[in-house]
Amino acid sequence: MASSQLTERALPAERAVEYEPDAARLGLAELPDRDLGIDELRDLVASIACDPDTWTHLVAFDDEERVYAALHRDAHVDVWLLCWTPVNDTGWHDHDISSGAVAVVAGELVENNLTLGDGAVETRIGAGHAFSFGPEHIHRLNGAVPGSVSVHAYSPPLRRMGQYAVSDAGVLRRMSLSSSDELRPLD
Ligand SMILES: [Fe+2]
Prior knowledge:
Elements: H1 3-7, E1 17-18, H2 38-49, E2 67-73, E3 78-84, E4 93-94, E5 99-106, E6 108-115, E7 119-126, E8 129-133, E9 140-143, E10 148-155, E11 160-166, E12 172-178
Antiparallel strand pairs: 1-8, 2-3, 3-10, 4-11, 5-8, 5-10, 6-7, 6-9, 11-12
């Protein structure tokens, strides 16, 4: 891991950028034949966020099971639409070897990051903003308000994830999950 990733003080969600509908950026039709960097992932989710014809018919909400739909998958990147209610909660997780990006297209998301000294640090990401992160990133996402929708991309494509739980003895544990398993808080 680059030392800059360990010394960076601003959280990825604090560096979220406002995206403009008419900005030129990386779209699905221009993907390179290689894994994407985190700036490219952020450009990709912003591009898809600005093209609602590709995802608006998939929007639905469910408190019991978070609604998600695959928008694209190839050898280097996968893209998902996620629909959130305030009840939906990923729990603490990582993305194994994948970098990722999130563009919020409606409502607002809450990202929490875990610190050993101060517990959870909360950042809110409103509609029209996008952020990205490397494989070192551990977070927890919730919908902040009803009707929140976001576009997510991962490169290399998400195959496994780490889901975190605290044992009865207070020890943090990581469980390896398949990307087909739903992230949710572990007791
Ligand atoms: Fe995540």
